[in-house]
Design brief:
single chain; Arc Repressor Mutant, subunit A; three-stranded antiparallel beta sheet; 5 helices; 34% helix; disordered C terminus
Length: 160
């Protein structure tokens, strides 16, 4: 349980909610959804998923080499979800991050998620990126590839 009193463990999901998450990651056990302690790493320089490339430090989403027109709130939601792929991110956590110190109705989150899904063509042409667990939150379910500054530096040294 986090400090806000909400839980994000899959153990607290109903069977149908856990099944909805599991269908996108078959064979994964509960620990996948649990918060993992990782050593401190350099911030990702880019995150690749489907035909998209997110450059979080530049606050930019590209499809191929073309910038994708996406509002700042929807882009912030995408960044939060990509920071925790495969994990359920509660609606409260998303709203606290995207609208800090501002009260907004949950409908604002729904509108931004819809805009994000529309731009990503989520649910069309075999693309599936974001699922929701009703009244709980959202989960980024697609495979991602993360590139970090340290990865590039090691690659550059290895090529030299």
């Amino acid at each position: 349980m986090d400090t806000s009193g909400s839980t994000t463990d899959v153990e607290h999901l109903s069977w149908s909610q856990a099944s909805a998450l599991a269908q996108f990651h078959p064979g994964l056990e509960k620990p996948f959804f649990a918060r993992r302690a990782e050593p401190t790493r350099a911030a990702p320089t880019e995150v690749l998923f489907g035909p998209f490339r997110l450059l979080p430090t530049q606050f930019l989403l590209l499809e191929g080499d073309k910038p994708v027109h996406l509002g700042s709130r929807a882009l912030e939601i995408l960044i939060v979800l990509l920071e925790r792929p495969g994990e359920l991110v509660s609606m409260k956590q998303l709203m606290d991050r995207v609208w800090p110190n501002i009260f907004v109705e949950p409908a604002n989150l729904t509108v931004q998620i819809s805009a994000l899904r529309r731009v990503l063509r989520d649910g069309r042409d075999g693309n599936r990126f974001i699922i929701n667990v009703p009244r709980r939150g959202y989960c980024f379910v697609a495979s991602i590839e993360v590139s970090r500054h340290e990865d590039r530096a090691q690659l550059t040294r290895a090529q030299a």
